[in-house]
Design goal:
Four copies of one chain form a homotetramer.
Chain A (H helix, E strand, L loop, with lengths): L1 E4 L5 H13 L3 E6 L4 E6 L2 H5 L10 E5 L19 E3 L2 E3 L3 E7 L6 H14 L3 E3 L17 H14 L2 E5 L6 H7 L2 E4 L7 H8 L5 E4 L6 H13 L5 E5 L17 H8 L4 E3 L1 H5 L2 H14 L3 E5 L17 H14 L6 E2 L4 H5 L4
Parallel strand pairs in A: 7-8, 7-14, 7-15, 8-9, 9-10, 10-11, 11-12, 12-13, 13-14
Antiparallel strand pairs in A: 1-3, 1-4, 2-3, 5-6
């Protein structure tokens, strides 16, 4: 940590700051320049992680942190990539993983139909919300427990793994009984009690980036889960909020190499929420693969116009099959593979 | 709702959209212009509040909502201002209310000392967090139940009302037993299970605006609480996230007249979090009063440099007394009053 | 400047960085902590203002600037407030200045009529654009030279000073012959050739903040004008771009005390562009005064619905008179005065 | 255009709005719903492009534009892709174009050395600024005319085309004499006199997106150039400003398919300014290709640490060669090609 003193600060004020810092057990390096005196503060990283309210001391102009505030999530702590294994599925390894399915579980029929499509396209993980965070209290809030049961049934039928959102600390146990991966939504990225609670489970956690979260805040949210004892965290970029209104969000693909550089955690991208328009899902999914992601989460719906949530960004089955095929051809460029064989070859008659 | 069709859309696609809308029970007005055909969709407001996924229908260029999605919070629903009464304190009435105190409850001594200061300055409500949302899992997380007990003791000693944050659905009962006003923090503005839960209590709720929430989303969060049966909602502007780094957040005072225009709910401003610098708290507090707020929430700490949370934005006692006096003189400009008499007159020897 | 080296950096890489910095003539302080080695770089401020590309050197993690990059604009360079005097009008002194008038000069009649209204309300400066920056090439682009002539005629008739925008280096001479104050619009805040050119004139310059400019960039734009020899710069906050769509921009009033703290330059606020809605102009104008501004720039139009530019944010004459009266009553709160006497008293019959 | 009236608007106010619109020559469709009366306004697109100040009329709640405000740039106006041809180089055609070189022309030696590297890597266009927009007036402002001469010399030596920035209307003639492509920088995207001036030349214009420009504003800036008679516009995404501080800007790759959908103009991406870190240039360049760009503009410097501008984001020669080779292998995925043969094969001894 560096403490920059105000120009022409009195010796008295400087002494008070030095005394305060020494009292905390830090060792200090003082540099007296012509323009400013600056204090280098060295010592226990843990102590410095607390944002000391030094700016409240008279004579202090600003405090500049030097160390990143996260530990367990950092590459410095763990150099090799974290690979999460669920059965025979790995996330963060050589294989790209696609999680596909409807935004919300709407009915048994809709879910089973979609699951069959997802399976046929070659993805190994089914997405679908049983608890839905909706801006309006008057919008469809999800089928809740019933939705979880349909997801479990779809898993039995298809062999797909299940990823689904948990929104409330009180539901973590319930959702954990059905899901293979617990999803924390963007609006809950800094719901700290919820992060601690999923950190106590043994389920992998898909942690979406908050709407206006910085990379550091996002990693710190992962740190909450890691610090609670669960080291299976998958980060998910889903677009940030900007002034642009044409797209629903602004998908920030540069975080893919950034996260890979700063942390050892796997990262996936959600081009459906990230753009809000089905037309943009394909190009952004492919761009994400080349930027280095470990996977994608994509909305697929057999009939988007009847979807109770986020229809405009859902792919119809044929578009989904086509995208999977394109991704399968693209993956080797990144020395990756994507499971499944071409749908078109399989069915013979299509395309 | 207006549906804008793509240029040169085929009659077939247009028919399909019209059929779909008629099937939902709407009445339609079709305008065929040279450039575009547009469909005016009239009917039951409730049905339209659901964001229909019409953009997933072929031939649709965009869908433009016409009605605001909130009802209970709107001026249209209730023309007169909501005034919340707790004992002899009103929020949203003629009297400005100041909520003051430390960011976090740190110890019994710190809290009781601060409460005495808050009381002496003339504020009627004591703020202080027992549960603290912190970016880092390694930062002080609050004294929890112990903190609530100290707050209750401070209320007994001083007669001040208590506002404190609740972060977890599981703690709503607990916090409600101690607090006079439940605070929902910015990071939880769209924690929908929590909004529903505080909506079931009979306590007034202070709802902070999310870091990057639009005005409409903020009002919709209030709508969750109102729809659950609790009509005592106080909105609180606390700064939004922008690219500016000099201030911690960008305090958006224009929302004060905007909220007054769109809703009947009281609104207060938090210049401490809104700026992150104690030097800016005074000017912004006064500007907020003139912009029309119903109250302010301000951080006061007897020793900001020893504060475990947000010291740089806390006022020392003398600065707080001085600000209260300035606000007391300013309030009549807005035909408002602020309780308390000048600290300087009271003590005689100071200033 | 502080150079933070990567964790576990080799001695060789460290040496290379030290050699490079010594070669530039800096004196260095090295602090070897457990986590990181950091280098304090001291020396000639001018040299350090150049953003040295040290991050391109291997082993460097980040570079943290310590000094602000502006000089002439800073409070450190000049402690007392800059007061700009034009005839008997001062900007930055005890008197609040209101600049009022139409967004664009549309015709001789419109301008002379508006000027009379502006004068009657008590403002001393007339605003009005002869060159208009418009998002669309098909929108009204201003009356250009003709517009300047009408402004000059309005000055002769009313005695008001003239502030008008200059958009092109080639027009600086022309506009300077007519205007008392040259306005640089938000979109030109970083039009560096234009800043240099107005810096060579002897006219005061009203420098609007860019749509997404940081405070530091804005002050650096002022520094361009100051460095060119013109020390009469007035800063003008006019709202920044955020995700909020209800208001046209988000007016950032916290910059008023920030600018007063960091610089010696006068600052005014534009609540018309800052909000985009006439309904919000009054509350924000008053809030700005209490936040400490030196003046306001406000759109007034005799018939907003016929305005060729920005009608929705223009005040009708009666609203303008009323606001001026309110500001006149508010000014003493800030130990300020506002010229003119109450319109209502003057005319006797109104109100 | 749709005009939404306030709830319960009086017939008198409604009549006044209808009269006003009929007086402008529009034909009107009125829909009286339970909640609101809305007016569909049809007629001449040109008239409607002017943002009519209807919101200034009493009783009007809001005005919703239906048509996009651009014409010449739109896909509706011209369905097939614009391909710009300069000698044997095409931009917007089957071949990907890479523009590479230093941020600033610093000296004859630096430029010629870099040009040779750029050529060897296989790019066909040399970038380099002779006029540099710098935040600080004390930073290196470019070699100006001398820089242009060096660029011309580099063209003669290597056969590369030249793209360089023009910042001032007074320099358009000068720069046009040397450059093959005129660059308009992000800060000048809405410098309308400059847009008009380059619109009068017969040179292709590279138009960078403004730091916080919406897609629509960006296209409107292109429309200025097109409307002035120059139909050779290349759009360039270079990152937008967000709250994220880890990267210099947030590169928005979703605009690539968006621009391709809305306009017929070629689009390229600048991953160097878009990220500000050389480490991110490669992944983002490749992602951009897969998202569908027509080209890239990349900073290359033989010695980034000695660069006078933007060293941290410049690639060293070997990194540049490697990226070009990767792009060459990636291009066929998009049915594109990239000129040049692998540097590694050429030189034999490297890699």
């Amino acid at each position: 940590m560096i403490v920059v003193m105000e120009k022409g600060v009195s010796e008295e004020k400087l002494e008070r700051v030095l005394d305060y810092l020494q009292g905390k057990g830090f060792s200090l390096h003082i540099s007296r320049g012509i323009e400013r005196t600056i204090i280098g503060v060295l010592g226990d990283k843990n102590k410095m992680e607390e944002r000391l309210p030094l700016e409240a001391l008279e004579g202090v102009e600003k405090v500049v942190p030097i160390l990143t505030p996260y530990k367990l999530a950092s590459r410095e702590f763990k150099a090799q990539d974290t690979v999460i294994t669920i059965g025979d599925v790995t996330i963060g390894g050589q294989e790209l993983q696609v999680m596909a399915g409807p935004c919300a579980v709407e009915s048994r029929e809709q879910l089973l139909e979609t699951a069959a499509i997802v399976k046929q396209g070659g993805a190994k993980i089914l997405r679908g919300g049983a608890f839905k965070p909706r801006t309006s209290p008057y919008s469809f809030q999800g089928l809740e427990k019933k939705g979880l049961e349909y997801l479990a049934e779809a898993r039995e039928t298809t062999g797909l793994l299940i990823v689904t959102e948990v929104m409330d600390t009180r539901s973590v146990d319930l959702v954990s009984r059905y899901a293979d991966i617990l999803q924390i939504g963007a609006r809950n990225m800094q719901n700290f009690p919820l992060l601690k609670e999923v950190g106590k489970t043994n389920k992998p956690v898909l942690l979406k980036r908050g709407l206006s979260a910085t990379v550091e805040e996002w990693i710190m949210a992962a740190e909450y889960i890691l610090a609670a004892g669960n080291n299976q965290v998958i980060l998910c970029e889903r677009g940030i909020r900007t002034f642009e209104t044409y797209t629903r969000n602004t998908l920030d693909l540069s975080v893919v190499p950034v996260i890979k550089h700063l942390t050892h955690l796997p990262i996936i991208v959600d081009p459906s929420h990230g753009t809000g328009k089905w037309r943009l899902v394909g190009p952004m999914a492919k761009a994400a693969v080349v930027a280095g992601v470990d996977g994608l989460i994509i909305e697929v719906h057999p009939n988007p116009v009847e979807a109770l949530s986020d229809g405009p960004q859902s792919l119809k089955p044929e578009k989904y099959y086509q995208l999977m095929e394109e991704l399968r051809q693209l993956a080797p460029v990144m020395s990756r593979s994507l499971s499944g064989t071409a749908h078109f070859e399989k069915t013979g008659t299509e395309g």
